[in-house]
């Protein structure tokens, strides 16, 4: 039951995204017009320290008018390595420089409408380098015990699905056996 994108045209574009209209053929031969958003990849990073605390940002999202815990994240610039982008975002948004990053997972948060892949990384160490350059991104930055993550997600305190998935996986990896 595969849908086929026969063609698409851009109806709006800026430096962040493109809105395209696709002519899609359905398996039964019918066609439909389908809007889609083309985005740059998103790079995400955090660190977990020796006390099994994870570095999070508390921020407000005006689009949904909601507050929640998130990981440092941003778009990958043209020609930028995804892992380097993740490290850059963590440093800019938290003031902490990650140690060697390890891939955590890659997710597609809304693949029925948007093509963006979110690449999550983590490190077992971080060095504080000073107040974050992009301090407007969050109200505060804190080291939160990983053991609290499942309850935080269940209470809706981590509203972004990509962040919840990454944090739950980190919780499982670091604490499931202990």
From TrEMBL:
InterPro entries: Nudix_hydrolase, NUDIX_hydrolase-like_dom_sf, NUDIX_hydrolase_CS, NUDIX_hydrolase_dom. Coiled coil: none annotated. Keywords: Hydrolase. It holds the Pfam family NUDIX. Residues 38-171 form the Nudix hydrolase domain. The keyword Hydrolase applies. Its cofactor is Mg(2+). It comes from the Bacteria. Belongs to the Nudix hydrolase family. This is NUDIX domain-containing protein. It comes from Streptomyces mauvecolor. The lineage of its organism: Bacteria, Bacillati, Actinomycetota, Actinomycetes, Kitasatosporales.
